[in-house]
Amino acid sequence: MVKAVRFYETGSPDVLRYEDVEVGNPGPGQVRLRHAAVGLNFADTYFRNGTYPIPLPNGIGVEASGEVLALGDGVTNVAVGDRVTYTGFINTLGAYSTERLVPAAPLIKLPDAISFETAAAMTMRGLTSAYLMRRIYPFQAGDTLLLHAAAGGVGLIVSQWAKLLGVTVIGTVSTEEKAAVARAHGCDHTINYSHEDVAKRVKEITGGVGVNVVMDSVGKTTFNASLDSLKRRGLMICVGTASGIIPPFDPQLLAMKGSLFITRPALADYIADPAEKAALADEIFDHIEAGRIKIEINQRYALQDAVQAHRDLESRKTTGSSIFII
User: Which of 4, 84, 257, 260 is within CB 3.0–4.6 Å of 21 for a Cys-Cys bond?
Assistant: First the structure.
């Protein structure tokens, strides 16, 4: 019997249920997949707690890898037996499952050298890192980057990518253990925000200048420190809200702090064009196949342990990537 994690009301991790489901034949434009591994992302908690409203009951999870079992009418981009991975948003919701129907359009064929586990751990994080490093700011040697959540899945990929480009990386972390992980993956400096003033330390590290770019996936609690860490005409990339949504602010604040720039990108807008998505996927796959970027899978869970996985994720106990093994 096919198993899936579903929820019938929003709330804490306890609302998640592991249950039997029926999976029929794929309709037009769909495929039936057998999952091998499923990605665990912080965005999953936003669906579960109601930050991202969706009709209920519903499945959860937007990223997984596996094998194509059957094709619906009109599907030409993949074939039965293909090894694939995918990520998305509403159109791929329901990844926490052993088998499922999914639109064929988001599927990405996996190179032979990329395992199912690696794919589930890096498709969303890898594509996110790719657009952050290659589509928003023209990073070059000598630039400085403040990277929040530096020991997280995206953080570890971005750190390694930045070092390939000659960028100096300052990473924020919550523990000394995470600081060690971040430094091992390319961070030149780490700041423990549990007891250090982030903006003050950034200014000390940069000789009072500040950084070219801040990548902030934390949100509410780090917003002001992020702005105060930027150099004149620096760029803040708000890429997540792990601590809560950033409160409304007067844009005049950006002028007062040095004519700063700010953007709030979303992965969906950088992979909407199939050609751009393919280019970003090829670039991250190439780095991984060549060993220039390593994907750290530091937590593995059984699908029936989704409640515990969400608890671990929200309590910031995890480092690197987390996946479910099917």
Answer: 4
